[in-house]
């Protein structure tokens, strides 16, 4: 398939995936207002290009938490990549390495932490949910550090799973041949069955996610790792300041891809206040609704150090495995190069709020 933009993979993936898996990856919570608003916010912004600037060379390289990256486009944490391709997260990791991009693996990865690390040639971070079983959480953290992961990303916006109606209507459960192999099977049993009007993922979250998580608990995690700790799910200036006060090393502005609180702020709308509240030594990332290189430029101009993409990666994986993911990343990198040149801001550091007329 000749893909000219990431959306080409969306159309092709829809034809290849079972309908319940398609709804699982595409859907949001509730009436899916936040899911739609994530994209709409990008569409509402306008760019202010400068002219008569030497743009013969563009440069989108950066350093993030000590890692050199060729692009500010990274891969967001997502579970169960083997739903989309037999090689799962190892194919995704190889593609990220080819692009010089960051990959954030999920705690519910369907390949082992060690095999993902073995496939990766670029930096890897590991995403965590706060589990009731602290021993299981600590064991995963220890394995990640031993395998060479460079940061931990704690998802803080999921004390419970949002009401994902597509999954409930489909009675969606993870098929038996796809497993979260880095955790005790007993912890994951509920994800493989679904009651009428519910989903296996929602049932599993009710059983295993610890809703008592508070800022004080970060000390427990800090005591168990030397890795940087990134908090994902920050949407307000208040929480950005608290993250800094409690020792976070970075934050991700995120509404979980529109899959948690329906009606929450679009990520791009929340970004300026979070970026303004974060101290200079606290990198701010963004996910949610990024689909083009121009979207990446907008996010960086409004305060993001980098962006993480989710659904487009899974579209590429479903269509053509490693090569599909690599092509999605290459398209976004090429689009970002075009945006930098046409904006008259050839380096990432040249992007600032003056480049954008906000929505």
What descriptors fit this protein?
single chain, 359 residues, alpha/beta, TIM Barrel, two-stranded antiparallel sheet, 14 helices, 12% strand, oxidoreductase, FMN
Q: Describe the strand arrangement of the main beta sheet, using strand numbers.
A: 4-11-10-9-8-7-6-5
Structural class given helices, strands, pairing?
alpha/beta
Let me know the largest β-sheet: 8 strands, parallel
Q: What's the CATH H-level homologous superfamily?
A: Aldolase class I
Uncertain segments of ≥5 residues (pLDDT<50)? Answer: none
Strand content: 5-15%
Mean pLDDT: 95
| Rg calculated over all Cα atoms | 19 Å
Helix fraction by DSSP (H/I, runs of at least 4):
40-55%
- State the shape: globular
State the end-to-end CA separation: 35 Å
Oligomer type: single chain
CATH architecture: Alpha-Beta Barrel
Domain module tally: 1
The CATH class designation is Alpha Beta
InterPro entries: Aldolase_TIM (IPR013785), Alpha-hydoxy_acid_DH_FMN (IPR012133), FMN-dep_DH (IPR000262), FMN_HAD (IPR037396), FMN_hydac_DH_AS (IPR008259)
GO molecular function, one term: oxidoreductase activity
Keywords: Flavoprotein, FMN, Oxidoreductase
EC number: 1.-.-.-
């Amino acid at each position: 398939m000749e893909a000219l933009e990431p959306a080409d993979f969306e159309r092709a993936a829809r034809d290849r995936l079972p309908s319940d898996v398609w709804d699982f990856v595409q859907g949001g919570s509730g009436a899916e207002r936040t899911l739609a608003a994530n994209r709409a916010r990008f569409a509402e912004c306008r760019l202010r290009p400068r002219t008569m600037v030497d743009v013969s060379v563009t440069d989108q390289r950066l350093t993030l938490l000590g890692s050199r990256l060729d692009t500010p486009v990274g891969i967001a944490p997502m579970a169960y990549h083997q739903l989309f391709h037999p090689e799962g997260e190892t194919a995704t990791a190889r593609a990220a390495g080819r692009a010089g991009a960051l990959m954030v693996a999920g705690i519910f990865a369907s390949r082992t932490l060690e095999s993902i690390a073995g496939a990766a040639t670029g930096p890897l971070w590991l995403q965590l949910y706060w589990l009731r079983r602290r021993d299981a959480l600590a064991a995963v953290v220890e394995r990640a550090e031993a395998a060479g992961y460079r940061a931990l990303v704690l998802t803080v916006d999921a004390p419970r799973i949002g009401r994902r109606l597509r999954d409930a209507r489909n009675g969606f459960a993870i098929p038996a041949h796809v497993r979260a192999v880095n955790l005790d099977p007993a912890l994951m049993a509920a994800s493989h069955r679904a009651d009428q009007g519910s989903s296996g993922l929602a049932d599993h979250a009710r059983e295993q996610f610890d809703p008592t998580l508070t800022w004080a608990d970060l000390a427990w995690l800090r005591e168990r790792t030397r890795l940087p700790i990134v908090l994902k799910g920050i949407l307000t200036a208040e929480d950005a300041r608290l993250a800094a006060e409690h020792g976070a090393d970075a934050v991700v502005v995120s509404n979980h891809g529109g899959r948690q609180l329906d009606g929450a702020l679009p990520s791009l709308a929340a970004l300026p206040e979070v970026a303004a509240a974060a101290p200079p030594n606290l990198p701010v990332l963004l996910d949610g609704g990024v689909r083009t290189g121009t979207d990446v430029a907008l996010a960086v101009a409004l305060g993001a150090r980098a962006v993480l993409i989710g659904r487009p990666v899974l579209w590429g994986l479903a269509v053509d495995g490693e090569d599909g993911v690599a092509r999605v990343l290459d398209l976004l990198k090429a689009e970002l190069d075009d945006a930098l040149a046409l904006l008259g801001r050839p380096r990432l550091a040249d992007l600032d709020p003056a480049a954008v007329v906000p929505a």
